[in-house]
Amino acid sequence: MPLDFDAYWFWLILAVILGTAELLLPGVFLIWVAMAAAITGLITFAADPPFAAQLAIFAVTAVAATLGGRRWYSANPIPSADPLLNDRAARLVGETVELTRAIVNGHGRARVGDSEWNVRGPDAPAGACMRVVGQEDGALVVRPVKAIE
């Protein structure tokens, strides 16, 4: 007994499954493939091309939708609630640190939490309190606390 199944249902159901997976899984990739499946389903409903042509339509629309989505996200970035989340050095600007190694010729070390960071700034003895004013090449730029206040 052959199944009486219109191919466009396959593509539309696939679009719903992929769209649902996009909602349940992190990321923004599956929505573009879901759109390609929906477009393929609509074209299949209207024109009923052979299955090989359906696969080609799906492949082309998936690539086009993904590239279009990437271009759109590049032009319209989503603002972050915490833009410095992955920039630990930038998050330290304004913090007061204590030097663990004196700054000599502009280079020293300071304790930040449970770790030590390379620091750059004016010469100062070990134990001096410094304020982080920036970052440069992975090192914190510091100034004496009294010079800032």
TrEMBL record:
<feature type="domain" description="NfeD-like C-terminal">
    <location>
        <begin position="90"/>
        <end position="144"/>
    </location>
</feature>
<dbReference type="InterPro" id="IPR052165">
    <property type="entry name" value="Membrane_assoc_protease"/>
</dbReference>
<dbReference type="GO" id="GO:0005886">
    <property type="term" value="C:plasma membrane"/>
</dbReference>
<dbReference type="Pfam" id="PF01957">
    <property type="entry name" value="NfeD"/>
</dbReference>
<keyword id="KW-1133">Transmembrane helix</keyword>
<feature type="transmembrane region" description="Helical">
    <location>
        <begin position="51"/>
        <end position="69"/>
    </location>
</feature>
<keyword id="KW-0812">Transmembrane</keyword>
<keyword id="KW-0472">Membrane</keyword>
<dbReference type="InterPro" id="IPR012340">
    <property type="entry name" value="NA-bd_OB-fold"/>
</dbReference>
<protein>
    <submittedName>
        <fullName>NfeD family protein</fullName>
    </submittedName>
</protein>
<feature type="transmembrane region" description="Helical">
    <location>
        <begin position="12"/>
        <end position="45"/>
    </location>
</feature>
<dbReference type="InterPro" id="IPR002810">
    <property type="entry name" value="NfeD-like_C"/>
</dbReference>
